[in-house]
Amino acid sequence: MCGILGYSSASFSYLDSSRFLNNGINSLKHRGPDSKGIWTNKDHSVGMAHSRLSIIDLSNRSNQPMVSDDLVIVFNGEIYNYLELKNELKSLGIDFATNSDTEVILKGFKQWNKEIFRKLRGMFSIAIFDSAKNEFILARDHSGQKPLYYFFDKEEGTFIFASEIKAILCYKKFNREISPIGLNRLFLKGFCEEPLSIYKKINKLEAGKYLTFQNDSKKKSIEAFWAIEDHVYKANSEFQSEDALLKTLEELLIESIDMQFRSDVPVGMLLSGGVDSSLIVSLASKIKNNLDTFTVRFSGYKEFDESSHARLIADTFRTNHFELEASKLDPNILDELINFYDEPIFDTSTIPTFLLSKLISKHCKVAIGGDGGDELFGGYPHYDKLLRIEHNTKFIPHFLRSASADILISLLNIGIRGSKTAEFIGNNYNSEYPNTSEFFSKRQQSKLFKIDFLKQIEANATPGLKPTIYENLIDTATVYDFKKFLREDILVKVDRASMAHSLEIRSPFLDHKIIEFVFSNIPSRLKVTKNERKILLKKLAQKHLPNNFDFQRKQGFSIPLRQLIASKSWNDYFHSKIDQSDPKIFNHSYAHSLLKAQNSYHNNAERMSALIFFMMWVEKFNPSFPMS
Question: With a threshold of 0.90, does the pTM exceed it?
Fold first, then answer.
């Protein structure tokens, strides 16, 4: 796991190149503290830099940028099937100088060109410079586990890419103007959807795609090498029995876990006590003895404390178990977090993820977790809720439902229970998918901000952001959450929190062979019904987990936020951050009213945390806003 950075610019001098690459890669040192490498071509029109977290082949010979003939590579991630690919390349007469997966990508690209990306099983952001063609090729993994941002100034012809935005900010000519669409999506959903970012001039390379930038013509093109839409279950697909599905799923998971144990440094296991991580630990125990497992304990808040469930799994499979006590959370942890989320997301589970990563990093460099289980197998509470609403309202004309929902929503104050249900009732499930996040509607955004950025958002200015609607609601929901919530929230949270502590987190569920199998072969009725979620995965887990394991609970990896905000320290902290925020941007009186309402019968805890986090982000990164 590493940090990558690169540029193409005819205007860069030696001094510009050296200053930018050094400052930029130093800003990513937390992603890879083991070594730093910089490469430029002779006239400094092209440069690449790398900060390395050594996991495979710890020797200096595997440092990056890595050069082979006309090709130069910087790479962030892990390729789990690198040994199989290496043997395939060796059979073609290709020699290797290292034991790294980086060299396998490089030699594989030379042999297969862009087809190499289809062969990779792993998580990756890759940048290859081909000096013979004078072009960059950038690629991002199937799920989007590893980040890859890019900036392109057409007038100047400058192209820059990086693992995190903060490295691009080291380019002194960069204009930090906020994207009105990105800002709207952030406050609506809690994240900026790819290809957007929070900045107008920065984009994300979408998962499963590769970008080609031709340095001579200054033209870029983007193509897909993989898409989840190609693997969604078809109603006329050949039916497989439940037993056959369980057998294949178990085999694929064991294979994925086994591959993800490949490492030249110690590997630990995240263990929340939920179905996903517990199943992963149970299967991992068949592959490896003396597993190290890690969890967070909230002993002062019984409703949020999952440590007893994690301990049951640890005892059952005889792991070396470590617990982090996190009952006494200081609000100042947000000041530390803000440094690593240079593109903000609204998810307070960043806090326990950050703390747990810190604990794990004291014991190992790599940890395996259960991310992806909810999106693949139908684990979120809104899935069965949406099914019930769809079923109960299918004979009521949409125009009646929509009008009734609009009236009800307008009467309910923000934070009042039931407003999201009303929104779901008013949805037309044949043509649209509802926003399942509970942050700020456009109406609320217009109250919250002093600036009127919403009028700059045009309906035709958001291509690709509308979800694909399938005949089956659960297909629509799980594909949406796989492409949006998982990619833009969960994986961002995990990447930044773990990388803050130079820790690599791997996710066996997100092997694209498993993703393809799940979406292509498992019908929605084995994922979610009106009364049950994650049906098939729980049946697999029942074969491996202890009889007294509780399969019905769904706590999630969260903190007792509402109780914390009610405390004097957190409440005072939030009030102070509102007062310190820029009054030309934020409506202080409205923000204070939301916080005051939180102390009564409203539930604005997540909203208030999101708002405070964004106010802190603005203060830290000093973006410019569209003021008219």
Answer: yes
Task: Please count the structural domains in the chain.
Answer: 2
User: Is residue 496 within 8 Å of residue 505, measured between CB atoms?
Assistant: no
| C-alpha span between 264 and 255 (Å, rounded) | 19
CA pair distance 351, 85, nearest whole angstrom? 38
Nearest CA to 133 out of 213, 16, 250, 68 is that of: 213
- State whether 219 and 362 are in the same domain: no
Q: Is the peptide bond before 195 cis (omega within 30 degrees of 0)?
A: yes
Which pLDDT score is estimated for 152? 96
Whether the Cβ atoms of residue 529 and residue 535 lie closer than 8 Å to each other: yes
Q: Which domain holds residue 496?
A: 231-326+342-378+478-544
Burial of residue 222, with CB atoms counted within 10 A of its CB: 0-12 exposed, 13-18 middle, 19 or more buried: middle
Which of the four pLDDT bands, split at 50, 70 and 90, describes residue 460?
very low
Do 309 and 221 share a structural domain? no
Backbone angles phi and psi of 153, in degrees to 5? -100, 105
Same domain, 276 and 171: no
Q: Name residue, tokens 């809720």.
A: 385
What are the tens digits of pLDDT across the range 474-511? 999 999 999 999 999 999 999 999 999 999 999 999 99
DSSP notation for 546-609: -TT---S----S---HHHHHHSHHHHHHHHHHHHHS-TTTB-HHHHHHHHHHHTTT---HHHHH
